[in-house]
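Mods, move this if it's the wrong board.
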Amino acid sequence: MNFQQCRYVIAIADAGSFSEAAKRLFVSQPNLSASIHQLEDELGVQLFVRSNTGTRLTDDGYDFIKYAKRIIGELDLLQNRYHKDFKKSFVVASHHYDFLSQALAAISEQFSDSHQEFQLVETTTKAIIDSVASFQSDLGIIYLDDSSKAILERSFKQKDLSFIPLGDFQTKIFLSEKHPLADRKELTIADLQGYAQIRFSQDDSGMTFDEDPLAIEDGQKVIYANDRGSLMNMLLATQAYASGLGIVTGFVKKHIKLVPLSDSPVHTLGYVISNQKKTSEIVEAFIDKVKEELTLAQ
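Not the wrong board. Structure tokens:
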């Protein structure tokens, strides 16, 4: 199997027939058919059903083309990377923090001459680490505490990453402004008894990679969210609570209450970078913007 055969399969699927695909590809139909037959023999599956009315993908063909498009897409990106007018991309993988949006917006303006794509990927702890280690992200924003520090530091070492602290934060309880506990100046774990907890979904990695600072109590009702917007909407619609570092900016801060949790452990927020890459100018500028946002959020 080669890249050309992948392109052939995509072209035939788009054209709906071998003859039309051959015209678009500027190849002869016999050569195109022979190449696809060779690919099908190599894979041991049939990719197309041929008939008098045209050509369609089989189930195996649909599965194949899904991966082929990814491969060809990445190959095209790699080729475009070396065009003289190519602009870079900047990707940040992070836990769910809204203050990063402002930092990324500022960076997108500052580096518009050299970068074309700017992306903030809110995801799970394991995905952040893997993304930075595989160079899919330029850096990751993550936190660690006493319960996760050992395993995360072990993971950083295994993947040749460095964790640089940005600050220490006490656990805050996130509540709807209409919640019965919203007017408290401080809360304890006992105060939260009987209330459901909203948490971010994490990978089933078998590791203590939870993003939420608080544990799940025995018999406690738990509502899981995959993104920050869903978590906030459920928070406003219920008497459940969420926990976090309390770094909240923008309109969300106007609709929820952040109440300190007494005697809570300290959580260290920081960023993760690969030791195999030199820290770029845009990464340094982004971290400076993040520090500014953290100052404003506190």
